[in-house]
Amino acid sequence: MSNKKTKVVAVALALLAIVTGCVIGSSKADAKGVSGTVNVAGSSALLPLVQSAAKSFMDANPNCVVNTNGGGSGQGLQQVSDGTIDIGDSDLFADEKLDKKSAAKLVDHQVAITAIAPVINKDAGVTNLTTKQLIDVFTGKVTNWKQVGGNDVKIVLVSRPSSSGTRATFEQYALKGHASLSNASLETDDSGTLIQMIQSVEGSIGYVALSYLTGNPEVGVVSIDGVKPNLTNVYNGKYNVWSYEHMYTKGQPKGAAKAFLKSMMSKEYGKKIEAMGYGVAYKLSDKAKATRKVTK
Fold first, then answer.
1. Residue 89 phi/psi, 5° resolution?
2. Residue-wise DSSP of 91-106
3. 165 burial class (0-12, 13-18, 19+ CB within 10 angstroms)?
4. How far apart are the first and last CA of the chain?
5. C-alpha 235: how far from its chain's center?
6. pTM
7. Helix (H) or strand (E) holding 223
8. 32 pLDDT band (50/70/90 cuts)?
């Protein structure tokens, strides 16, 4: 090869290296170059997953801040509808909490499913309740655990506010539409606080998402009609107390909010979902799917 041709090839290769370097550099910058602030609030059942996703996202994007809060599904939906937050987390479809006009302006991003389990103070001495017994406990017809096969201990309800999506799901599917009594002295929609109350108050009972039970807290988990609340039984349709988990935006998400949701709903992050006690919708059997309205 002549010296002239050799020089031309060398120059071409050098230019190719520069272009390739720019493309690679640009790709890396795009992957880690998200900046801005994303405010997320709502469902306490979804909060642990959102917090974990936010940490991973901020680690990869140090110029971005994702603020995460609970407060309940109703509050999250109202806030995102009002435009005071970027993403509203909910255990319910928006039209179950908001008027049709407001709900129509929101875009649904379904990230997981959540199963909800009754939890009790271990001194109660109960591991299983029939649906009727569960209804009687939460509506106040039964007031002592010995009436349902447990110890001679007074039943104390730890309730959730009316804005709670977890409460709505539990009442609809565990209590078959019966409204549970409220206990103003022991009411919270912070599931971590609820667990602490159950641990410390003798005879207490409440309910939490399975994601709050992955660390084996010192509470009793109650089966319903002999069926344990776990993901296997949710998937096969035997355990029916669960809901889709939604993350709503007002209109299509943009900027940092769009990037955060894309990251959270990626296959790579999806591997972490079950490890945290949440379910993935594609594993639901036809029997399980048939118990819910068609997702939107």
1. -90, 140
2. SS-GGGTS-HHHHHTE
3. buried
4. 65
5. 17
6. 0.76
7. strand 223-224
8. low
